[in-house]
Structures are given as structure tokens and as C-alpha cells.
Amino acid sequence: MSSHAWVEEGEYYCHCTVWKSKSGTWDASVLFERRIDHANEFVPGLRHKIKASFNSEDEAMTEAIAYAKACVENTKTGL
């Protein structure tokens, strides 16, 4: 089972994904894409996997969105 959220932050599109692991905890990642790159046929992106595991889907998604916003704000997307 997985859940997804799309966030526009600064000059980036952030695709937040959370999924339930086999152990029953929730994991999260964020895929970053630059808005300007969407004018091209090929859109490079970079995925960050959040190292922590979470007890609930809501907690994981809240953290993924906060992580995305913090990375954009601090220019730590890797793009």
C-alpha cells in the first residue's frame, strides 16, 4: 500500500511517496523535479529516501512534505 502527494515549492515540483514496509512501519521518499525542466521532453529528477521509519501513514506523509519544503528552502535538492 502506498500514498502520494504532489507539492509545488519554490522552483520545484516535489512528489512525496509513502509506503508500508514488511515490518509494518511506514517509509517515505521525495522526488524533486525543477519546474523549468518541464518545458523539455526529458525531465531529470532526483529522489531522496527519508532514513527514518514512521508509525503511521499520516506521520510519514507529514514528514515527507516537511522534508521537501526544507530541502527546497535550503537548496539541498541535489539538482
Describe the structure.
With 79 residues, the protein is α+β, with helices and mostly antiparallel strands. The protein has a single domain, classed as Roll (Nuclear Transport Factor 2, Chain: A). The chain is 22% helix and 46% strand. It has one helix spanning 57-73, and strands at 2-9, 12-20, 26-34, 45-54. It has a four-stranded antiparallel sheet with strand order 1-2-3-4, with helices on one face. A hairpin with a 2-residue loop joins strand 1 and strand 2. It is elongated, with a radius of gyration of 13 Å. The termini are far apart.
Keywords:
79 residues; alpha+beta; Nuclear Transport Factor 2, Chain: A; 1 helix; elongated
The overall pLDDT, averaged over residues, is 94
- Structural domains: how many: 1
Low-confidence stretches: none
Quickly give the CATH architecture: Roll
- The number of strands is 4
Order of helices and strands: EEEEH
Based on secondary structure, the structural category is: alpha+beta
- Distance separating the two termini: 29 Å
Tally of separate helices = 1
CA radius of gyration: 13 Å
The coarse silhouette is elongated
Q: What is the name of the CATH class?
A: Alpha Beta
What is the CATH T-level topology? Nuclear Transport Factor 2, Chain: A
Strand content: over 45%
